[in-house]
Amino acid sequence: MTGAPIRVVIADDEPLIRAGIRMILTSDRQIEVVAEASNGREAIELVRAHGADVVLLDIQMPVMDGLTAMAELRRAVPSARVVILTTFGERDNVLRALESGGAGFLLKDTAPAELIGAVRAAAVGDAYLSPAATRHVVDQLASGRSMARNEQARTLVSQLSTRELDVLSLLGEGLSNADAGRRLHMSEATVKTYVSRILAKLECENRVQAALLARDAGLGG
Predict the structure, then answer these.
(1) Closest Cα to residue 44, out of 19, 65, 30?
(2) Suppose 167 and one of 104, 130, 156, 194 were both cysteines; which one would form an S-S bond, judging by CB atoms 3.0 to 4.6 Å apart?
(3) Distance between CA atoms of 102 and 105, rounded to whole angstroms?
(4) 196-200: long-range contacts, CB 8 A cutoff, minimum separation 24
(5) Span 103-131, mean pLDDT?
(6) How far is it, in rounded angstroms, from Cα 179 to Cα 157?
């Protein structure tokens, strides 16, 4: 990526966590951490003040939690892309983040390269969901899906080509584009193209929705 750096605000109530995230992100020359917040309300104020491109939000924070702050940011600063970065709590937090239009959901033990990749993806308008987050949501919800939903999913995926079904199956396993590419002997860029095509055909907003469809249709591990 060339041009102006990606301006990032980090919001977490633990100073050591913020420091670690800052250290990782600033190792990439195209990322600039412009401010740090200790709660959701402060994050909103800082995003407004600095015109951040991407906001990394913890869920559990005092004064205002990350999910509430994300909803407010979507209204007040719609151009800012929000990535939820947290330890895993209840699955409802993940679902609320996805339903509220978050650009990504990562765990705090995410590898540095994945964190940087998520910020870069969010900055250009792509949604990024940690494979671990995808697997967690899919596994938690799969058992509660109805037979009618399963049949509907099979009908939807029937429009996909054989190769698209291969990629969708790996989404159902929670694999990243890079891992799916290695499994299918394809480049990461090619897998990304397939994923975009799959999301469009299935009318899914993100990878988790596609992964759930895959599981409903009997695909994936």
Answers:
(1) 65
(2) 194
(3) 7
(4) 197/164, 198/160, 198/164, 198/167, 198/168, 198/171
(5) 81
(6) 22
